[in-house]
Amino acid sequence: MSRLPPSAQVRTVLADGSIATLTASRRPRGNRADVKCSVPGAPGLAERMQAAVRAARLTESTFDSRDQVVISMDRAPTPTERDWELAAVLADRLVRGVFAPAAAASSGAGARKPLLANGWSDHWHLGRVDGCARTEAAEPGHLLGGSPILPHLGALHGQPDRAAAVSSARAWFPLWSGRVDDTLAWVEISVHPLQAPAADEEESITVPNADAALTLAVRRTLAAARHFDGRALGRWRTVVRFSETRFQGPSYELALVLADRLARGREFPARGRIVASGCSQAWHVGRVDTVDGCAPKATLILKEAAKGDRILVPKDWEDALGPDFQHALRELGAGAAFVERIGMI
User: What superkingdom does the record give (predicted)?
Assistant: First the structure.
């Protein structure tokens, strides 16, 4: 019989001084999402809550995808508030048995109150708690995030900052649509080693703020590319972040794979950025396939390239771009390679 609680509650103080309660419950995963969140009348806040909870799981050294965690909030904060984030992260950890707080404060009747917590972070994937909007505790035991009380989630257990065990890397890809705001977007991979192998590689990969289609595509691409590495499967928890998720097509895949290889120490870093465009129908054998938009993407790359950048594009682009493309990049202090396989760059 499982000793995990079927549900858990954490309270948080909102900006107007009222207290909201976040309730987390577990149920068999099935084919549902790993985390589901709801905030009354505020689907955007629910998406932000889901992203924070998913990212904060990265620094946990164990992985179990059998249950779905459902987190609900009994009242909606204002759209700009973020101090509830720590309460959501802790509710998720409580219901999964990852965190067990000390005895909470009691009411006048002697009943235990749920934990009260406030805090926010731009670096949940590193386990960091960046700060708290409140400067004073509302009651004894009120957990305020940020330095000096709770600078990182490891402090909950008296453990060191786990951010040191997280390896992160970025690669850029041309985001081209034919408009004046075309630019280079980035994809960032953060990996944290697991104590025991993950049974499902794809489930160990999280893509906060991405829709189901992009999440599935990213998971399948990384799982296949890691298969090519031989012994890379089941070893990592992974968070994937994009600077922009509103794009179409698979041309980001090569940048995604290279960022993952950089984060896992399988690729040599460039002096500047790695900028790449390419996809594959066979990442499991390391093959790089061509993508559409050779000429406009090359023009965008030349416009955005800087000294020290390494440009990687499909081998099929070589004839179309000719030697002038590489010459122009050398003039900028950047370099280029036309690739047909990863692992041989």
Answer: Bacteria
